[in-house]
Write a structure and sequence with these properties.
The complex is a heterodimer. By secondary structure, chain A is α/β, with parallel strands linked by helices. Chain A has six helices and ten strands; from the N terminus they run βββαβββαααβαβββα. Helices cover 27% and strands 24% of the residues of chain A. In chain A, helix 3 runs antiparallel to helix 4. Chain B is built from 13 helices and five strands. Chain B has a five-stranded antiparallel sheet, with no helix packed on it. In chain B, a hairpin with a 2-residue loop joins strand 3 and strand 4. In chain B, helix 2 packs antiparallel against helix 3 and helix 11 packs antiparallel against helix 12. The chains are: A alpha/beta, B alpha+beta. Chain B: It holds the Pfam family ABC-3. Chain B: Belongs to the ABC-3 integral membrane protein family. Chain B: Its main location: membrane. Chain B: It is found in: Cell membrane; Membrane.
Amino acid sequence: MSEQVIRITDGGVVLGGRPILRGIELTVNRGEVVAVLGANGSGKSTLVRAILGLTPLRRGSVQLFGAPADRFKGWRRIGFVPQRTTATAGVPASVWEVVASGRLAQLRPLQPMRRKDKDAVREAIDAVGLSDRAGDGCSTLSGGQQQRVLIARALAGRPDLLVLDEPTAGVDLASQDTFAEILRRLVDQGTTILLVAHEMGPLEPLISRTVVMRDGRIAYDGPPLESFRDVPHAHAHHPAEHRAHVDYSLDVRTPVDRAAHHADGDGGLR
Amino acid sequence: MSLLTYDFVQRALLAAFVTGLAAPAIGTYLVQRRQALMGDGLGHVALTGVAVGLWFSTSPVATAVVVAILASVLMELVRERGSTSGDVALALLFYGGIAGGVFITGLAGQSAATLNRFLFGSITTVDERDIWVTVALAVVVVLAAVGLAPRLFAIAHDPDFARVAGLRVRGYNLLVSVLAAVTVTVAMRTVGLLLVSALMVVPVATAQQLTRTFKQTLLVAMALGTAAAVSGVLVSANVDVAPGATIVLLALGGFALAWPVGMVLRRRRRVAEPFSDDALDLDLGLELGHDHTVVPEEHGHDHGPDCGHQAVPHGDHVDYVHDGHRHAPHGGHYDEH
């Protein structure tokens, strides 16, 4: 019996009046390594943000480690690697300082870092191979190294679930290999991983399952694929009499949907 | 230095000391949030608070604190929504603040000369009660800015990550804004509302020319701010110049000295560093030539850390491997190495 780490039911997200996610059903079990693939604008980043509570759901619900997201308290079990922004912050920050912020979930306000916190930070910086750069400013690092700093920050909390949003975007191939090596060690330790990517590249052998997003829906959920273009059946062919899907967000239904919905409803009453 | 024995000079020095400590402490977070001008805006709005105080004949500082805090909360809510018209909303607030201040001062039957005391500071008129309020508020600001540094840093650095880590991002952001409002009204007596932003931002800009970590920046900025504020008061005690303006000009002088040093440091780092460690391990099979030749070659991009070409450290600069040869940018062309 495997533990459900992420479960999203009937998920719908609306941003600026446009439906971004529709009818999302996704369960990730403990120990799985799930890749979310899709073209730009397919909603894959929004899916991750909705799971983490960074983007509000218009419909449906998210459960994390079996608890509803709004009452979830175990944030320290989750490590998040956001999309790398090319702009560095206005004030210099060292590698150590950025990675150390990954321990804050384990500390109360005003509580200084304990020895085990410092050990965890050191270990995380070690794991991504930046020990000799720990005291250097992040802005002096290359793009791939900055990405590794963000991964180290997530690792510093020793998470049970690691969520990565486009970790290999704009990273040279050599750094991607290093990155695949880091992930492999985590997979061996039993960490659950949810990872958004445009293309798999060197990460492919690690993946246990692929989810493909298209136009805000899950278009494929099954054995690993190399690219979102490899989805075996792009769409299902319904029989002609099949009734229209009613899985849009309630307030963003098009006039056509509304007509179909009324027709179905009325038909049921008569 | 017989002037130092006067009570009002001692009070002015103490006020300058605590403002010089508190303003850059909170200013560091504003700079990190890319809100360097927020202090200036709050200063404008606080003017309305001062005028309200004059109108009701209560303490102008008390009403200024209340109005500035309200404005800071409003500004934080505008910022949180992240709308592109956020800076226009802030402009409305700023000009509304200064116009309201002048307008209400007129209603209160006071002249613009009264407002000048608050616009440009009047550190020598600080009385016994003012000084203790100033010290108490400054201590609160410094304790929060230094004590909560790891959290405030993480939130300003990456709010999304901080939220997923379970931190109360909104609460801490409001705290920084409110502390900034308190600092503005504290510094109102020393450098005045129009120059308060300078004491919050200039020492930070100076510090980050020389520092590599956030903690260093915070502490160096506080030291520089204190040095500028105290020496500004000392100068104006001996020469007949306005203390507020002297403090700000000294702070700017510090920046003018630090900037060339920062340029050299940054240039040295940039030339020497943008290569990945992985590049060192690869056998490139390319020999170094001692004579450098210029290659007239079209480049769709400038070589850099993200260009995808293999980077190789070479003495004091970095070469890039491109189409089977390796070269480094030099002026407007590439040198073959």
